[in-house]
Hints:
Elements: H1 2-9, E1 15-20, E2 22-35, E3 42-55, H2 56-65, E4 69-77, H3 80-91, E5 95-102, E6 108-115, E7 118-125, H4 133-146, E8 152-156, H5 165-177, E9 181-185, E10 199-200, H6 204-211, H7 216-227, E11 230-234, E12 240-244, E13 247-251, H8 264-277, H9 282-296, H10 307-317
Parallel strand pairs: 1-4, 1-8, 2-6, 4-5, 8-9, 9-10, 10-11
Antiparallel strand pairs: 2-3, 6-7, 11-12, 12-13
Amino acid sequence: MRDLIKIIDNFKGKKIGILGDLILDKYIFGDVERISPEAPIPVVLVSEEFHTPGGAGNVANNIGALGGKVFIAGLLGEDDAGKQLLEDLVKRGIDISGVIKSKHKHTSQKMRIVARGQHIVRVDKENNEYIENHIEEKIISYIEANISSWDGLVISDYAKGLVTKKLAKKIIELSNMHNKFVIGDTKPVHATFFKNSYLLTPNYKEAIAISGLADVAKAGKKIQRLLNCNVLITQGAQGMLLFEKDKIQHFPTIAQEIFDVAGAGDTVAAAMAISLASGSNLEQATIIANHAAGIVVGKIGTATVSIKELKKDLIENGL
């Protein structure tokens, strides 16, 4: 426990680079008292609206909330959503010098409508075409110029078009060359892009899809072998499985109450990154990430966890 608290005390000021799909998460909260006369659907009377960074922005937000210094690279459209998202990132102290604006691609958005604590519907707006070569080169140049000063890097790939095979391969090569860890949080369609990364963090369904195997232990071993990396599989109520070298470790879930799992994977990637940057080994980082995820699923929306909350949870529900 003392070692874990010491690691958390080292979070402040750790420099993490993030490459990934930037998404604006919007939330509309309200109440339902009647059914629409126009169609058999609920009428939501809005009481509150807010927006927050999603996707790679949520990973950045989580690392920042834990005291890290974040440098983010990604792509936004020249639209109102992109402007809002940039403002949100700057407000949180995140370095946006690696963010590129494009006239040819609109900013990805996820709008969730919630009534009486229940999700009614989610509306997505996105353009999943892969980025152009000149944008790839700009991002690579940005990473090349900055990676030596970072403690590690996260690639947050929501398969919205930013992360290409060439880009992922080059970033992983750069990370290994500079002896920096790179954590890959990706969709199954891009899993092969992440060969030779330090850690991959799929959830249960993603691990099954990547491996083609129904048994989670066999799936993790296969991914580990195919991609030459460590693997952390998150399983919701079943906890987490860490595959490191020839060892498999199970970590029971920490969550007391689950209100919203949105963004929990981002929290795991963020907590793993800042823990590794602060001197933890993979087992210690997983314990910390497990507690962070247990806290964040007890909140509504793409939320973050603070150092104070994390320490309190470790002490009350720890080893």
